[in-house]
Design goal:
five-stranded antiparallel sheet, 17 strands, alpha+beta, six-stranded mixed sheet, Creatine Amidinohydrolase, Chain A, domain 1, about 350 residues
Amino acid sequence: MLDPIAARGRRSRVAEHFDCLLIADPDNLLWLTGQRAIAGPACLVLTGGRWCLIARHGALPSLPDVEMISGSSQVEFSQRIAGLLQRRPACVDVAPPDSTLLHAAGDHGLHHVGPVIEVLRQVKDADEIQLIRENVSLLDRALGELEPHVHTASTEVDLWQTLASALNAAAGGDVEIEGNLASGDVRTRDGDPHASGRRLQDGDAILLDAYPRIHGYYADLTRTWCRGEPSAELERLHGAVLTTLHTVGAALRPGLTGDDVDRLARRTLDECGVDSSFPHHTGHGFGVKQQEEPWLRPGSSTVLGAGMVVAIEPGCYVPGVGGVRLEQDFLITQSGASPLGRESFSLIPQGDA
């Protein structure tokens, strides 16, 4: 769970950048309050260095530096916000803002600063890092329990449902799980494949990219397995992508740009003799959002810093063979990077169902 003291520190840091700010994105509300139980709609309002939380429904959490106001109707909710703004120009973290916020702002309008808030979220506090570390461990454990079922599952959907069950059992509750699951030459090369009724066959590449959300924060891991004996070419692709993942992971450190990391990944694939033109980023940050700054992609000038958490996910997609993608999460440290979760990337699934 998030630490209320750390959340107060995050509010203080945000207040250094804005005089008048509306926080309406539920993910940013979680980040800044540490609370998931705020019944929406709700808005965290910063004016003149003071915070106020306005919510339409339910009990409000107790935050020592935040004034709490309930607004029972949409009109009252808007009026409460307008009263705090006092006709001053304001910034907002959502685009486009809904009619309630626009009405509260009146003729002065609202300036979208969502990207600025995203940058402020890049460096994680200790409570966020601990929660992400726990979530990655839960996902890692569930993937380990899933591996033997790759040999026996009938369809992609069967495999996905087995993962969901294992993850819910590991987390002890209902988990929001999204991601990609595909099998075979064609589907593993799709841009955004979801589990289908396709029957799994011997020799299939099976690509699984899972990003569950637990207690409001994400984990993000990808594995590529083979059902039965892999072809020599699939083994070669998998080996090249794994070498690339290890090379990039070992090179991560403060001071590198997102473009530096992406170039290294593509250069390593080239040196392995496989296609390096994968159509997606090499990696991204994550936290309350599944993908966020820092982006590790061509042209990114974002500079890595200690405390950032990133997912590295190189891939290679070849017609007639299939797609291979592997993903590991890392915490950027003062001197390099520390992997989160097990480094288990065998092409042949381990264990018996």
